[in-house]
Amino acid sequence: MKKPIIAITMGDPAGIGAEIAVKTLQFKNIYDDAVPLVIGDLEVIKDAKNFIPSNLKLNEVLRPEDAKGEYGTIDILNLNNISLDDFKYGEVNTKAGKASIEYIITGIDLALEDRVQAVVTGPIHKEAINQAGYKYAGHTELFAERTKTKDYAMMLADKEMRVIHVSTHVSLKEAIERVKKDRIYKVIKHAHNAMINLGNDNPKIAVAGLNPHAGEQGLFGTEEIDEIIPAINKAQKENISVYGPIPPDTIFSKIRGGQFDIAVVMYHDQGHIPMKVTGFKFDKKTNKWTSVSGVNATIGLPIIRTSVDHGTAFGKAGEGRANEESMKDAINMAINFVNSKLK
User: Fold this and answer.
1) Is residue 304 a contact partner of residue 119, using CB atoms and an 8 Å limit?
2) In angstroms, what is the C-alpha Rg of the chain?
3) What tens digit of pLDDT does each residue of 123-146 get?
4) What is the pTM of this model?
5) What are the structural domains of the chain?
6) Cα dist from 59 to 12, 71, 307, whole Å
């Protein structure tokens, strides 16, 4: 079977995207299962290779089909959108923001044409892309617009911890207003399908409450009674193994303990905080992150998209100190999604 081409968008050139791409492609097992292809700028990748340092070779290609997919060589689709003179590492830059969006658009379009089989995104900077005129809250909204997808959800995963969101980049006030039966039901379905695509034939899905103690039978709010429970009941009628609402202060311990496989969470921080508590580890003695693991995946798109679960890390950009763990996890999850799709 021909190995899938996994496009890796370089992210904001002023951040750590190029560095973590190069560091990740030093692992042979990725080449055993896929043809990784960096979409970005050759000059920036060369610079990252120098300051890491890395002895990997570079192979500039004009088309995804020309990628060699050989361990020891990084295949790069060079868009030649920015030079090292155009930006400084660790600083917000309009040209860098524009370039980062152009890498993503190229990856999406290639995936829609099935010239690459998945897109893995490096970190972008929200201020930089907005300065460049792209009014997106992040990757997810761009992917949805470019693929003309209205029904999608953000899933975060790190080892045994997995969460999928009813809402993400909106105010807390608006997030509460978005806790509606139809949306919750759709996210439960997304959770079910995502877990099956990752090889779990009978996933157990937990649904978090919105309010303290999951509302305590209406004492602390009625969203559970009015919206969340009806959505769960509807999904259960379709033989989906879904349970809840479960109080938000205990649901994640149950996920980690294996009682459930994934949690449907009601808003951004309800899901992101437990993910980053488990996946991100900081050592005060060295003043460094010793672990930055976790994957962000957009579920419901017509193409496969995964991403690192961290930002551009401007504080360490250009220094060779970035942790590539999340990028490696994101590529491996993309490969798993592709393999499941091919079965």
Assistant:
1) yes
2) 20
3) 999 999 999 999 988 898 999 999
4) 0.91
5) 5-149+301-342 (3.40.718.10), 153-275 (3.40.718.10)
6) 21, 12, 23
